[in-house]
Amino acid sequence: MTEPENTWKPCSHCKKPLPFGGMYWACSVSTCNRGRMALAFCSVPCWDTHVPMMNHKEAWAEERRAPTRQEWEREQSGESPPRPAPKQAAPASPRKNPEEEEMTDEKNDPDKDILIVASKLKDYIRRHSGMNTSADVLEVLSNKVRRLCDDAIENAQLAGRKTVMDRDFR
User: Rounded to two decimals, what is the model's pTM?
Assistant: First the structure.
């Protein structure tokens, strides 16, 4: 069985193909990112399945971008990668209309990143209620946190500050 040409590697849990240059999640624990083991997951729920198996005490999913085909081939051949261009600050984007947000490509949109630490949230809910937590909760809570942050940013701007403070969330 051969891999499709645009596939970098399969998800370490569900084996869904991860495309070159696409987003994936990696474990924050260094032993999960070494050499041949280097785990890569297609989603946070796939990452979440390996946490109890690996017996991690403190871990989180880190969003990363897979290498391009050229970068991957260069790495496999042992060549040194070209020096990256210096990073430039991205211009601030205005607040989006909710209808526009639904139309964006959610998989590649950094404004759709999960902002909630899954293990901490699940632990909190389990300790306080004995209940489990669906992976879908993370996206819903992240959206609520984004809205709260947008409102706080607006309050800080109206107050003439460049720092968001606790009082901006009230």
Answer: 0.43
